[in-house]
Amino acid sequence: MRISFNGGTAYLEQDIYLPQFLEQKKINPEKVVIEYNGEIAPKTSWPEIKLQDGDIIYALTFVGGG
Fold first, then answer.
1. Measured between alpha carbons, how far is 25 from 59 in angstroms, rounded to an integer?
2. What is the DSSP string of 2-42?
3. CA separation (Å) from 65 to 29, 32, 62?
4. Is 52 helix (H, G, I), strand (E, B) or coil?
5. I need a labelling partner for 51 at 20 to 30 A (CA). Which of 2, 35, 40, 62 fits?
6. Which residues contact 50 (CB under 8 A, 6 or more apart)?
């Protein structure tokens, strides 16, 4: 299955849920907001999100500065 992740393409060989995908990508879930198919996904819904062919995911981090 093929998904779009942060503007690139990721290929998945098996069914996977969003938290496991983030773990594979070494993304700290405490420091990101996930945009899933054009909408912000609440963290409480992440365990229910089973990735599907064609999904579009962005892991957004916030950078502070002055």
1. 10
2. EEEETTEEEE-SS--BHHHHHHHTT--GGG-EEEETTEEEP
3. 21, 17, 10
4. coil
5. 62
6. 15, 16, 17, 18
Return the CATH class of domain 2-60. Answer: alpha beta
Per-residue pLDDT tens digits of the chain, which is 66 residues long: 999 999 999 999 999 999 999 999 999 999 999 999 999 999 999 999 999 999 999 999 877 776
3-state secondary structure of 50: strand
pTM over 0.70: yes
